[in-house]
Design goal:
Blueprint: E1 6-7, E2 22-26, E3 37-40, E4 44-50, E5 53-58, E6 61-64, H1 74-80, E7 89-95, E8 99-108, E9 114-123, H2 128-137, E10 144-146, H3 147-166
Parallel strand pairs: 1-3
Antiparallel strand pairs: 2-7, 2-10, 3-6, 4-5, 4-7, 8-9
């Protein structure tokens, strides 16, 4: 009986990687081959990519990975390439739970008065299409995308919106 690679959000010690504050997890292995078992939790999506292109998007459940466009079977690939696939498949797990982020800073009013702001917002990846948008449009570093990293990316957008509301943007034309 062939042993399947299980691709999931569990760390080698059995702990869940997708905890609070984690929006996306990039499975670190490059051992995804035909016959691998993709395990997706009920509050996650999994975007499977091959060479940068979206290969499939999965909701909660278990799915055997089929790479029908490859002539070599998964077990032969594993034996020949020492468990590594020569074709790079990536599994990106995306949380569908609502994640809260916070942006805070300082803006100026039209009268040049300092306005301290504190904005809470949330991110909710509700559909497969939303998961694809996050994976294709949001840069990440390492193997996780956290709400803190998202906030570092979105913080300037929030600041610009606050400046527009306070009228400070009208000062730039003076």
């Amino acid at each position: 009986m062939a042993i399947r690679n299980v691709i999931s959000t569990l760390a080698p010690d059995g702990t869940e990687v997708m905890g609070p504050g984690v929006l996306m997890y990039h499975h670190p292995g490059n051992d995804i081959v035909t016959g691998s078992l993709l395990t997706v939790e009920s509050n996650h999506f999994c975007v499977l990519k091959s060479r940068g292109a979206i290969f499939g998007v999965y909701e909660g459940g278990q799915y055997p990975v089929q790479t029908t466009d490859r002539p070599i079977m998964g077990s032969i690939q594993q034996a020949f390439y020492s468990g590594q696939s020569p074709w790079q498949y990536e599994a990106l797990f995306v949380s569908s739970a609502k994640s809260v982020a916070r942006s805070e800073g300082l803006a100026l009013s039209v009268e040049l008065a300092e306005l301290v702001y504190d904005v809470d917002y949330y991110v909710h990846i509700a559909t497969k299409e939303d998961a694809i948008k996050l994976v294709t449009h949001m840069p990440y570093q390492g193997h996780v995308l956290t709400t803190d990293a998202l906030n570092a990316y979105a913080g300037p957008v929030v600041e610009q919106a606050i400046n527009q509301l306070s009228g400070a943007d009208s000062l730039s034309g003076l």
